[in-house]
Amino acid sequence: MTNSRPNEFIPPPECPVFEPSWEEFADPFGFINKIRPIAENTGICKIRPPPGWQPPFACDVDRLHFTPRIQRLNELEAQTRVKLNFLDQIAKFWELQGCTLKIPHVERKTLDLYVLYKLVNEEGGFDVVCKERRWTQIALKMGFAPGKAVGSHLRAHYERILYPYYLFQAGANLMNSQKPTLTNDTKDKEYKSHDLPHRQSVQPAETCTIARRAKRTEGRCFKSEQGELCENKPNLRRRMGSCVAKTEPVKEIPVQVKQEPFEPTAEGEKSTVEQYMCLACGGGGDEDRLLLCDGCDDSYHTFCLIPPLHDVPKGDWRCPKCLAQECRKPQVAFGFEQASRDYTLRTFGDMADSFKSDYFNMPVHMVPTELVEKEFWRLVSTIEEDVTVEYGADIASKDFGSGFPVKNGTFKVAPEEEAYLSSGWNLNNMPVLDASVLTHVTADICGMKLPWLYVGMCFSSFCWHIEDHWSYSINYLHWGEPKTWYGAPGYAAEQLENVMKNLAPELFESQPDLLHQLVTIMNPNVLMDHGLPIYRTNQCAGEFVITFPRAYHSGFNQGFNFAEAVNFCTADWMSLGRQCIDHYRSLNRYCVFSHDEMTCNIAVKADSLELELASAVQKDMSIMIQEEKELREQAYKMGLWHSQQVDYDVLPDEERQCAKCRTTCYLSAITCPCSPDQLVCLHHIQDLCACPVSSYTLNYKYTLSELNPLFQAVASRAESYDDWASKVNTILKANQDNKSDLEELRSLIVEAEKKMYPETELLNHLRQIIQNAERSASMAQQLLNGKRQTRYRSGGGKSPNQLTVEELKLFVNQLYELPCTIRQAPFLKALLSRVEQFQQQSSNVLAEDMPGSSALQGLLDEGASLDVELPQLAVLRQRLEQARWVEAVQQASDQPASLGLDCMRRLIDQGVGLAPHACVERTMARLQELLTVCEHWEEKAHNMLAARPRHSIDTLEAAIQEVDNIPAFLPNCVQLKDCVSRAREWIKEADAVGGRIPFLSTLSELVSRARGIPVMLEPLTRLESLVSEVQAWKESAAKTFLLRNTSHSLLEVLCPRCETGPQKSKSKKVKDVSLPCKKVDVKLDSLCDVERVLSTSQDTASAMATLADVRQKELENLSILRTSNEANFQSLPSCLAPTVCLCHTVPAGPMLQCELCRDAYHSGCVPGFKDIQAGQPWLCPLCKRSEKPPLDKVLPLLASLQRIRVRLPEGDALRYVIERTVRWQHSVQQVSLPTQHPNGKARHISGIASSQILEGSKGSYYMLQPCIPLGGLSAELEELLVEGLLLQVTLPELQHLYSSLLNRFTPSQHSLQSSEHDHQYHIAQDRSPPHRSPPHSKGQDGVLETKKEKVEKNSKRRLEKENLEGHYRDKIKKPKKKKPKMNKERRREEKRTISPSNSLSDPSYSEDSEEDWSVCSAKRCQQPEGNEVNWVQCDGSCNQWFHQICVGVSAEQAENEDYICVSCAINDLTE
User: Under a CB-based contact definition with an 8 Å cutoff, are residues 596 and 441 in contact?
Assistant: First the structure.
C-alpha cells in the first residue's frame, strides 16, 4: 500500500556462544548451571560441543513421513496481519452491498487504507480533518512528498471507501445518511479478499504449490500517471532470478457467507404485500428496481440505498441490517493450515532446495545467511506479495525414531559410537537425568520429555513463544542449513507481551492467549525500538541452542535442515513453574502436567534428592501446602461438608481438569452430584454449577496431615545442612586450648561435598580458612626447611612471598591465631635467632674495603636459606657483583693474549652498571686507558691495511715495533704483522724469478698471492704486465687456431695427440697389435700428463723432446687406427658389416672417408659435407681439430711470444708445431713423386676403388670423395702424407703432395663408370628424390712440374682442379632447385670450379685472372676482384706483394703489425 519500503533489517546483537571442554561437557546440567548467570540475561545461548563430538544420525529416513504446516509469510507478522484483516473487513463490507473493493493508487503507490484509516481516527475523524484541513499533514505522515496536492486525493479516497465503513462501525444509520457511492476508478486494482476463516476451514486443493505467491490485487505493477494499464512485470525477486519455476495457478475459492435463518418479528410472518414494499421509502413502485435481501428477504429500491446502486448487483446482496449482523461476527482464531500432501524426507528436501535455489537464483549453499535474513523480514512485512512455505514441525520422535541413537532402538550403533547412547547431551536422556525435575513426571509428554523433530525449509519459521510451563528447552541441529534464532531474556517477557499487545491490539482482542499459539511473529527491530533487549544467533549443524525459563524466542530456517528439541527443568525452575500455573489459570489455558503432582512425587524421594533440589522443593511445597490449607478452609467456610479421598494418579489429565481454568487438579477438586463428570479447582468453586455449596463434594488426594510427613522429609533433607553448619561454627569459635587440627576441618569439607550441600557463604568461608591454614603451614615448613629457591642467582630480586623479620614475628602470631593448630609454629623461634646471627656476620664483612667474592657468596647462601627478607642481602649482592667484576678485570689483565677490545668493552659495560666504589673506580680508569690506546692502534692498523696507495714494508715494520709493547690482543695489529711477513717472503720469491724465464703458472701464482697482501710490492706491476701480455697472446692464438664452438683447448690442438679419443674403441678390434714404441721415462697417456710435463720441464729442449715423444706415440696410434678402419671395408660377409660414422650404423648411400683416420661417415651425418672441395683431403670432425691457419699467420705468434720471455705449455707446443712443419717441408722437398704411365692409365692398386658400389647388411653405399689407398703407397710416402695431415698448419706443399698422389691412383675409367654408378645407387635408394646428373666432362691429367711461368702454372693448376672436381661432380647429383644467389667471389669460384671449359674459353675471364695472378706472390692466389683486392707487402727480406685475402691477413693487422711471408719465416728458422 502507500507505506514506503520498510527499512532494511538490522540484525540484533549476537547471543553468547559457549565452547565447553571435554571435562565440562561431561556434566550437562553442571555446565548449564555454570553458564546460567550469563546466558539467562540474553534468554538464549549457543553451545558448540567439543571437536569430535558427532553423534550418528539414527532416524529412520525411509519410514519418516509427515504432513507439514502451510505458512504464508505476511500472515505471520502481527502488524501485517492486522492490515490484512482490516482490508478483508472493508472488502466484505462493500461486497455485501454488491460493490467490489478496488485499492486506489496515489503517486504510483498502492494506498495503505489501514494507515489512512488509523491516522484520520487519531486526528479526530473525517469531519475534524476536513474542517481543520489536516489532509496535507496526513499525507506527510504516510510518506508522500509535500507539494503535490496528495491530501485532496487522500480525502477523496477516504470519503469514498472508508468513511461509509467508519459510519457503519460507529453505529450510524446508513439509511438516513447522504453519502457518495463507491465509484471505482478504472485504474484501481480489484482487491481479492484474504478470506482467512474460510481458507482455514477448507483443505487446500491438491494443485496448490508450496511456493505459490497469492496476489491480493489483479496485477503486480501500479499504473502510470496517464492512467494506462501497466503490464505485469517481475518484482524484485524475479529480477534476482528468484521466480519459482513451474508455478501452478492457485485455485480461487469464492467467498461464502453463512446463510443466517430469518427470525420472524413479534408481529408474525410478513404478508405478501410487505415483501414487495421498500423499507426505506415505504413505496411499492418501481418493482424492477426493488432488491430482495438474501439474508432477511427485506425489499429496498436501488435508488433508496445509501449509497444508491445503479444496477442490480451480481451475487448475494445484504441489506443494512444483515450487513451489520455479518460484519459484527467475531473473527475466527488464526492458525496454520495443514498441507494436503504427505512428504518423505527426500521429497521434502527436493522441494525445499528447489524453492530456495529458484527464489535466489543461485545454488542453495551459496546464498548468504544475511541475505536470507533480510529477505525474510521484508516478506513478512509486506502486503503486496505472499510467499508460502511449509514447515514440518512437532513430529513425534516416538513414531519414527529420534535423530540420536537410543538403547534397544532399530538403529545399530558402531562400537566406537556406543558412548552416544548414554550421553547426557542425547536429547532422549537429558529430560530424565537425575538433576532434571521432569524425571519425576510419570507421563511421557511429547515435546517435553520425548523429543520433537523439525524439518525446515527456507523461510519456514517458528513464531514468538515461550516453552510450556516456562521450562528450559534445548534444540540440536543434526544437519542441513542454519537456523536463525531471536530471543529475549525472561525478565522482559511481560514487556514483550505488552509491546505486542499495544502494536496489534486487534489480534489480542479475539485471541488473548495469542502468544501461546505460536502463530504470530514481530520484527525484532520493532521490538528493539520499544526498548526490548533482543539477541540473535545462527545455529549451524552440530550445535545446540538453549532457551531459558520464560525467555521468548522465535526464528526461521535458512534452508532444508533437520532439528530435534526437547524440554528440561532444573531445581532453579521450581518457583517459576508454580508462577506459570498461576499465569495459565488466569488465561484459562491447559496445563501439560500437574505441577502439584510432580512436587509430591519428588517429596516421596526426599532421601535421595540433591540438597539444592530438596531446598527448592521444600520452598515450593511450603507454598503449596499453605495455599491448599487456605483454599480448603475457605471452602469449609462456604458450607462445604462432604469430602472423599480420590487417587488422581490413576485418572488421565483430561478427566481432572478444572471446567473453568483448565488447570489439572491433583491435591483436591470440587464435584457436584448434578454433573459428576465435571469438576473445578478450589479457586473456582462458585463456577461449578447453580447448586448450593453444601451439596458439593471435596475430592482430595492427601489430607493435610498426610502432606506434613512428606514436607518434613524434604525439610529434613534440606535442613541437614543446618546441623553441619552448626558444627562448623562451633569449631571456628573455639578458644586456644580447644582448637581442632586441620584434618578435622577438612573432614567437614568432605562431608559437605558428599551430601552435595549448596555453595553457601559458610562453606566458602570454611574453605578459605582451610586454604589459609594450609598456605601458612606450607610457608612455615618452607621457612624451616630452607627449600625456597632465591631469585638473585637468576637475575636478582627477592621472592614476593618472603617475610621481613617483623613479618616473621607477626606470622608466628598469626599461626597461633588460626582456628586450628599448626605443628610448625614452635620451630619458627629458632629461625629468628639464625636471622639475627646472619645480620651480625653481614655487618662485619661489609666493613672491609673489598672482601672476597667467596665470603660474600657464603653469606648470601646462608641468607637465602633463611627465606626471610633481610635488608643486608641487597647490599651483599651489590658488593658481590663489584668483587666479581674487579676479579674478572684482574684475571683478564693477567692474560694479555686473550684480552681483546670486545673483552675490554664488555668489562667496562659491566662495570658501568655497578654501584660506585673506590676500588671499582680505580680499576675502571686503568681499563679505559688501555682501551683507548688499543682502539687507537687498531684503527691505525686498519687504515694501514686498507690504505690506497699501500704503505711500504718499512713503514709497516716501524708501526709493528710500537704495537709490541701494548699488553692486549689486537687483531688488526696481528694481521699487520702477518702481512709484513708474507710480503717479505713474496719479495724473496719474486726476486728469485727474475733470474730465469719463468713459467706462466709461477707468475700467475705470484700475482694472485700479491693481490692478497696489503703492502706496496714493487715487482708486482711488472709481473702483472707479463701475465696480461701472456693472456692476450693466448687469446690471439686461440682465435687463430681454434674452430668455432670447439670443445678443444688451445694446448690440446697444438700438442700431438696422445689419445685417439672416440676412435680408440675402434682400434680394439685389432687383437694383440703392439708396435715397438720409444721408451719414455714419464707417463704421457693424456693431455694432463703432457701439460704437467711441459710445465715442469727445465728448458725448451726438454719440452721439445717430450713433444717429440708424444708425436711418435701419435703416429703409432694413428697407424693402428688407419689399419683397423681400412680393414672394415675389406670383403666381409653381409652379416659382419661394420658400424661406422658418428651414428654407429652400417655404411649406406653416399659416404665420406677421412683421409687421416680412414673412418667412414654418412654424408647426412657430417655437417657441411656439400662444401667439400674436390682435390683436397677430407678430414672427419674428429681429425680436424683446428682452423689450420697458414704458416705466415703462425710465425708472428711465436715471435711475439719470444719477446714476452715467459714460458707456457702452449708456447712450447706452438714452437714444436713450427719446427715439425719446417721439418716436414724439408722432407717433402727431398721426395720425388712417381708419375702415371704414358698411356694415361694408373697401375692396378689393390684396395677399394672409390667409384665402386659396395654392398652392406642394410644396402649398398659408395664414397663421395676418393681416398688414396693404403696399399698403393710406400711407407715413406704414407708417413709423409700422414705427417702432413696431422700438421695444424695449412701448407701448399701438402696440397701439391695430395693432388699428385690422388691423380696417381685415380683411374681414368672412373668417369666412364659414373653413369652406371648413379643408376645403381638410385636403385639402392628407393626413397631418395630423383636427381638430374650433369653431363660428363673429360678431365685433364694433372702433371707435377717445377716452377715455370705464371701463366702456364695457373693454367695447369686450373686443369688439375678441373680434373679432380669433374669426378666429384659425377658422384654428387645436382638438385633440381636452384641454389641461393651467391656473391661475386663465390660465383666466380663456381665458374672456375664447375665449368672449367667455359672459363678456359672465355677471353675476358682469362685476362682478369691473369692480371691478378701475375702480381700476387702467393703460391695459391684466390684471384680477388673489385673492392676485395687489398694488398700487403712482406716486411722480411723478399719485399714481395700479396693479396691480403690470399695470405689470411686482415686490413687491421696489415696496418698495425709486421707481415712476414712463409718463405722469409722458413729462412729465418733454418738460419
Answer: no
